[in-house]
Design a protein that fits this description.
about 25% strand, 5 strands, 4 helices, about 170 residues, alpha/beta, about 30% helix, 5-stranded mixed sheet
């Protein structure tokens, strides 16, 4: 089995687990006061691979795309520490499997305070929106996949924050 997986990765086979977000995940993006975009965090094998990943540059590209879409970005350092603001985390793992060829997973999650309907007085920090991908390729493919996942977030944000967007409650159909 392990030999089959290695052959699939070495042949350039790419598996994407990026899924369409649910109506409830999209609805959790409605009327956000703003979003904190945390640093992009990846673990890598070998560990010096982190030097090859343009994570700071990718974070700047994601921030620029979010600004162009009108998503308010909040500077975490200047915000009051007692207020919990929604924050977007991009993280994952990268493993080099050949020269300039990597296997990686990328996960983007929006964390925000939320409450269960049956416990309205109790609020907790929860993941309310997420997308992910498992794939193989070179650094450019990694970059493209990360930006694609960020654009899924932007697309969903725009879909519920436009004038023509659907009003809550959503049907379960």
């Amino acid at each position: 089995m392990a030999a089959v997986l290695v052959c699939l990765f070495l042949s350039g086979f790419a598996v994407s687990t990026a899924k369409a977000s649910t109506p409830y995940e999209r609805e959790s993006l409605r009327d956000l006061p703003g979003v904190v975009l945390h640093s992009i965090n990846f673990t890598s094998t070998p560990t010096n691979l982190e030097d090859e990943l343009p994570l700071a540059e990718l974070r700047s590209e994601v921030k620029l795309a979010m600004r162009k879409a009108g998503i308010p970005l909040i500077d975490y350092e200047s915000h009051a520490s007692s207020v919990v603001v929604p924050h977007l985390q991009i993280q994952g793992a990268v493993s080099q499997i050949a020269a300039n060829f990597y296997a990686y997973t990328i996960v983007i999650e929006l964390h925000q305070e939320a409450a269960l309907l049956r416990k309205t007085g109790q609020r907790s920090l929860m993941v309310t929106w997420s997308e992910g991908s498992l794939s193989t390729g070179d650094i450019q493919h990694f970059r493209d996949r990360l930006l694609l996942l960020a654009h899924f977030f932007i697309r969903d944000f725009e879909s519920v924050n436009s004038r023509s967007s659907q009003v809550w409650p959503l049907s379960l159909e």
